[in-house]
Amino acid sequence: MKFSGIAKRINPVLQKVCGSLPLTPWSSVLSRFDPRELQGVPPPMNIKLIAEAGELKQLRFNNKHDAWFPEKTRISADLWNEYLSVFWPHRANGHYYLRNGSVINSGDVCLDCGSCEGFFAFQALEAKAAKVILIEPSATMANCLRKTFAADIAAGRVVVVNAAVGAAEGSTTFAFDDFDPFSGKPAAIPSAIKISVTTITKLFSDLELKRLDFIKMDIEGAEIQALEGSLPLLERLHPKLAITTYHRPFDYIALHAIAKSAGYPKITPVGLVDRGVGVFRPVMLHAHL
């Protein structure tokens, strides 16, 4: 291993020892030294354009998954990395959802918060989930999802909800870029549009669900509020959780506290990232009974 690689792995340890990472658990800091993570070589990019329809285009990933995107979406290494974050199961991928007890069983009802293009929905349906609710605040991406999963929607296996989830019902402003669908996030800028905000608890009631087995969440730093809005369901049903914690340095510790207060005995951090600012934090939190 090159010296620069060693230094990169030692840096978070030094920060933790010096007390500058009080909110990052030791297990995440030391994960950089797991020899099983050193051998990861991601599959080469495999994205093909297979159809176009007006302002949309259909892309095929890894000769397997066909998804609709805005016509302006760039076919790039970043787009391939978004795909791999869901489908590459190697330990080096801290963003992998189905890990550490967060598994989908046949017949499960899953909630996909921040669905975007629907990669996780493919994964859930392949695991034989009975129903997947896709929550996506971008109207453009919600329309893409309806086109991608048209057959599953007709069969009652998929429901698309064009809204954001938070701690309470209301509204917010949301910015979206057709060139980069993964960059959408709440923002107060001139180009932002007003969107509806609901809660997971309200959605559960509105959709007349009888069970909730799995919650996946990657919503650009709004995870704390969304989990707060689902607390009554967490306490009662204890769905498995796979929630991103990398957007802000304090996200993991706050989400851990919410899960702990809801009665989850098994809460595990996975991965480590600094987001280019030098403050390391776990990539994801997994929780289950």
What would you note in describing this structure?
The protein has 289 residues and is an alpha/beta fold. The protein has a single domain, classed as Vaccinia Virus protein VP39 (Rossmann fold). The chain is built from 10 helices and 14 strands. The strands form 3 sheets. It has a 7-stranded mixed sheet, with helices on both faces. Strand 2 (56-61) and strand 3 form a beta hairpin. It is globular, with a radius of gyration of 19 Å. The mean pLDDT is 92.
Describe the structure using short key phrases:
289 residues, alpha/beta, Rossmann fold, 7-stranded mixed β-sheet, 4-stranded mixed β-sheet, 10 helices, 14 strands, 29% helix, globular
Number of helices: 10
Number of DSSP E strands: 14
* Rounded Rg: 19 Å
Question: What's the number of domains?
Answer: 1
Kindly report how far apart the N and C termini lie.
39 Å
Write the layout of secondary structure elements.
Elements (H helix, E strand, L loop, with lengths): L2 H15 L8 H5 L16 E7 L2 E6 L3 E6 L6 H11 L21 E5 L5 H8 L4 E5 L3 H10 L1 H5 L3 E4 L2 E2 L4 E6 L9 E2 L6 E6 L1 H7 L7 E4 L5 H6 L2 H7 L2 E5 L6 H11 L4 E5 L13 E5 L1
Parallel strand pairs: 4-5, 4-11, 5-6, 7-10, 11-12
Antiparallel strand pairs: 1-2, 2-3, 8-9, 8-10, 12-14, 13-14
